[in-house]
Amino acid sequence: MSLPLDARQRAMLQEMGVTVWAPGEATAAPPAVASVAAPAARAVPAHDGAVATALRPAPQSPAPAAPQPAQANTSAPAAPRATAASTPVPQAAVAAATGLSLHAPQALYPTADPARTPAGLGSGWLIVAEIPQPAEPLSGDAGKLLDNMLRAMQLHRHPRVFLAALQRIAPGGHGGDADVAGQLAEAVTVLQPAMVLVLGHVAARAALASTEPLGRLRAGPHTLAGCPAVVTYDPAFLLRSQDNKAAAWADLCRALATVRATTPAA
């Protein structure tokens, strides 16, 4: 899936580590992907310090004792122990197990001019993510990457882009609420966004009340209080795993395409 990108958006994607093929480069050799090539991940030195000692003859060890014949077990077989995988996890306990606190949604770009908001971005967006510092969500390396991701989608020009920040509660702390999914559903009802963008496994489990792995959550379509939702990687994970930035950009493009398909033409 490709999107028309100007020079500024390409610069933002380059900051994210996502390589975008320019239109003039298609004459040399067409890339294997449609619009996004694999990101140039930072090289990580391989641990190649293999032990190169010569093999030496093993010392003589005493011969093992002859195995004793196994005694016949005439008792009834014990009942198999229940495993964690066989015990279903109650959906209501998913958010409680995470120990999260949900902060009230805040506008990320409140000074954006609605008259200059690009078409096709819908009535608004709700971003759900785990944020260590909810008071300054766009600070730090992860916050800057989140800002670059949203700017590459031109969402910084939309005044109705809200962030519902999730924060971990320390053991024994107060303020956690088990019904995070219910609170998010209420926020969607009030804000009426065109898309809910869920960033990261922790946020996905809390928002969707699901124990599925992140790969399955990314693949499937979701709804939250009747609003379409897309799950992708969170910025903190992308800083640790540069190779997944192209996949994250593909998820963002899918979210944009979903909004454009459901937004009436002006």
Any overview of this molecule?
This protein is α/β, with parallel strands linked by helices and about 270 residues long. Helices cover about 30% and strands about 15% of the residues. Strands 3, 4, 5, 6, 7, 8 and 9 form a 7-stranded mixed beta sheet that branches. It has a two-stranded antiparallel sheet with strand order 1-2. Strand 8 and strand 9 (about 225-230) form a beta hairpin. The two termini are about 25 Å apart. Mean pLDDT is about 75; it is low at about 25-60, about 70-75 and about 80-100.
Write a brief structural summary.
The protein has helices spanning 7-16, 92-98, 140-152, 180-191, 201-208, 214-219, 235-240, 245-262; strands at residues 19-20, 36-37, 100-102, 106-107, 125-130, 161-168, 195-199, 222-224, 227-232.
Structural topology:
Layout: H1 7-16, E1 19-20, E2 36-37, H2 92-98, E3 100-102, E4 106-107, E5 125-130, H3 140-152, E6 161-168, H4 180-191, E7 195-199, H5 201-208, H6 214-219, E8 222-224, E9 227-232, H7 235-240, H8 245-262
Parallel strand pairs: 5-6, 5-7, 7-9
Antiparallel strand pairs: 1-2, 3-6, 4-6, 8-9
Helix pairs in contact: 1-3, 2-5
Number of helices: 8
Averaged pLDDT, please?
76
Question: In sequence order, what are the helices and strands, one letter per element?
Answer: HEEHEEEHEHEHHEEHH
Percent of residues in helical segments?
Answer: 25-40%
Quaternary status:
single chain
The tally of strands reads 9
Q: Detail the poorly predicted runs.
A: 26-58, 72-77, 79-98
Using only C-alpha atoms, the radius of gyration works out to: 25 Å
Distance between the termini: 23 Å
Share of residues in strands: 5-15%
Derived from helix and strand composition plus strand pairing, the structural class reads alpha/beta
- Global geometry: globular
The largest β sheet comes out as:
7 strands, mixed
